[in-house]
Amino acid sequence: MPELEPTGELNEDFSSPGATAPPWSAVREVLTTSEMFWLSTTRRDGRPHVTPLPAIWHDGSLHICTGDQEQKAANLAAEPRCVLTTGTNRMNSGLDVVVEGTAARVTDQATLRELSALWKSQLDWDFAVVEGGFNDGAGRVGLVYAVAPEKVLAFGKGEPFSQTRYRFG
């Protein structure tokens, strides 16, 4: 599936004078090269749940894997809207990226094989493809989700500071 090219809008109220919106290619580079993300979901009772996990950018979506018995899986089953965040822990350098979207289960065997190969090549994680997801070799089932961006925020850190919203569609 071809990746959508979003429209970027600099928020001048939260950006330094003279700042410009980073090109989508810079944001995509952060999504492609980052290994760890923070996943924010909502529990059934409305309380937030945030946890770090690796993610893979592929075909215009972030892909995550979680055990079928984990809190993340229960949360996404009840409320698939979620947020994935990545960036740096620096104040004056880097680009932080926030991806808002809706998690959709990936069960197609060909796509799972592609993702398994990416997890191995990018993160050195071995996943065997099984019906409906991944098996980690210890008998645990990993549910795989794709989170297609509905909105992305990028925060450029260091002069000039910038805040940019990317809209899709």
Automatic annotation (TrEMBL):
GO function term, MF aspect, one: oxidoreductase activity, acting on the CH-CH group of donors
Domain Pyridoxamine 5'-phosphate oxidase N-terminal: start-end pairs: 26-123
Coiled-coil positions: none
Protein species of origin: Nocardia tenerifensis
Xref: Gene3D superfamilies: Electron Transport, Fmn-binding Protein, Chain A
Domain of life, per lineage: Bacteria
Keywords, comma-separated and alphabetical: Oxidoreductase
Protein name in UniProt: General stress protein 26
PANTHER family linked to this entry: HEME OXYGENASE HI_0854-RELATED, PYRIDOXAMINE 5'-PHOSPHATE OXIDASE-RELATED FMN-BINDING
Region (Disordered): 1-23
GO cellular component, one term: cytosol
